[in-house]
Amino acid sequence: MVISCAQWLDSGILAAPSAPEKGLPFHFRRLGQEDRDAIVAFRAMVFADLPDPDMYVPEVPEFVDWHLEGERGFTFGLFIENQLAAVTVLGLPKPGMPNFATDLPAPPASLDEVAHIASSMVDRRFRGFGLQRRLFNYRAVMAFGAGRPFLTARVALTNPVSWRNMLGCGMVVGQLLVMHGDKLRFLFVRDLRQAPLEFAGPERLVPLFDVDAHRAALAEGLLGVRPMAHEGAYVLAYSRAI
Ligand SMILES: CC(C)(COP(=O)(O)OP(=O)(O)OC[C@H]1O[C@@H](n2cnc3c(N)ncnc32)[C@H](O)[C@@H]1OP(=O)(O)O)[C@@H](O)C(=O)NCCC(=O)NCCS
User: Fold this and answer.
1) Residue 114: CB partners within 8 Å, gap ≥ 6?
2) Whose CA is nearest to atom 22 of ligand 1?
């Protein structure tokens, strides 16, 4: 069963942070074949505008089509004043397909329960509106509805807006990956079937780019839970789930 692209899954009024009195009407819906060109153009615009290409390395060209009609998941758009303002992807990998959870020290028993919180892009004009978290919440609910309560996401260490938002959405760092040759990625997880994890102190603070320290913490079963700033640089607080 596929949700019609003509059905609005949410709509309302957004407040611009710089001018909260100015309400911006928005709606959210699935994007389909007829939106393909708009998706491709939107992605190209966002990639071209990245201050550091490591922040988000483009997926293979097939990624867009794999996630249009359910082959590997679905794509959604958030429209502000009827203009495409954000594009996001929910990956629903089938058996035998690449699955983010296989990189975890302890993958879930059934990979069929895994959803990929795969891609979020917000038009520069609408950044700072909290849209990434909104897009996360939509996908979490849809993933659960699709029988995929185990959420996973990969985020570049050089993309602090994105990894801080993931932590703010209740995701925790469960692994550190090296991808695209030499690029570092956090692998985030959250299991919607469990109560939010509680953590025992004391926390271990790991400088953002101290790969060995991240690996040591993860090898001991700690999880990355909280962003902190220390002497002008980011550190990630690791702790043990109880
Ligand atoms: C990463 C991204 C999706 C975040 O989207 P967003 O909806 O703007 O996220 P938020 O609204 O939570 O804003 C994030 C932070 O940027 C700040 N911000 C405010 N105005 C901003 C602006 N004009 N541009 C960028 N960031 C701004 C926000 O205040 C917030 O800071 P805080 O966490 O200290 O509160 C968006 O920046 C983006 O599309 N980046 C390019 C693609 C990308 O990297 N995607 C993620 C791949 S994993």
Assistant:
1) 93, 99, 100, 101, 108, 148, 150, 152
2) 127
Nearest CA, atom 3, ligand 1: 121
Report the atom number in ligand 1 closest to the C-alpha of 131.
7
pLDDT digits (tens, 9 = 90+) for 163-180: 999 999 999 999 999 987
Contact 32, 89 (CB under 8 A): no
Ligand 1 pocket residues where CB is under 6 Å: 46, 55-56, 120-122, 127-133, 155, 159, 161-162, 164-165
Task: Please report, for residues 54, 63, 75, 215, the alpha-carbon distance to residue 58 in angstroms, rounded to integers and kept in the order given.
Answer: 9, 9, 16, 26
- Note whether 151 and 204 are same-domain residues: no
Residue 1 lies in a domain: no
Range of the domain at 114: 10-196
- This prediction has a pTM of 0.95
Q: Residue 15 C-alpha to ligand 1 middle, in angstroms?
A: 15
Q: In this structure, what CATH number is given to the domain that contains residue 50?
A: 3.40.630.30
Averaged over 76-96, what is the pLDDT? Answer: 97
Query: Does 76 share its domain with 132?
Result: yes
Count of domains for the chain:
2
| Residue 240 placed within a domain | yes
Write out pLDDT tens, residues 37-56.
Answer: 999 999 999 999 999 999 99
For the stretch 67-78, pLDDT in tens is: 999 999 999 999
